[in-house]
Amino acid sequence: MLKPSVSVESPATNNPRKGRGFSKDELAAIKWNVKQAREAGLIVDERRKSKYKENIATLKVFKEDYIKVLADREKVLLKARKDGVKARREAKKRKQIEDSELIEREKEIDEERKRIQEEIAKREVEELEVESEEEELTEDELAELETLEEGIDLEETPEEALEKVEEELAEALGITEEKKPEEAAPEGTKKVVKRVRKKPTTTTKGAADEAEKKE
Questions:
Q1: Structure confidence at residue 75 (pLDDT)
Q2: What is the domain range of residue 28?
């Protein structure tokens, strides 16, 4: 802060000397009051009634410089205020952008999660379809199974079924059974059936050849 020096004349010698402060009349010359002068940092001597041209000139220069300082300070404050407003706006805008990016990221994560879940569900369905296809029989297998079911007599016992199979096998091998009168078998015993291999029949030509060999 500017602090101008105050000069007054000595009553004894009329020589200029350093005074205590500016008088009210000197402040009035530059259109200031005591309050304004003290706010500007000036010292006021309210008891002095004199007024000097040197002090008035000093006060005029001080007032001009003080007004410039206040203007510069106001500019600095205004600039700082504008910068603060701008910074707050930028921070708000940046926060909005970050929030929007966060929301978009959350949406992408949700979509990715849904896609993975759908893919897993689809894969499970495909695996179930493959298993069901493997379990299903072909048309040929179904036809063969139906044929086997038709050839099975559900009313016959396992012993009868086994005997039937043995008879078919014996017939295929050319084995005949010796039929004997059936006798009542004692209880607890099994029926024994003897099988005799059937001799192959020879043709007339084959018999003639054998006779020639014997002769």
A1: 92
A2: 7-95
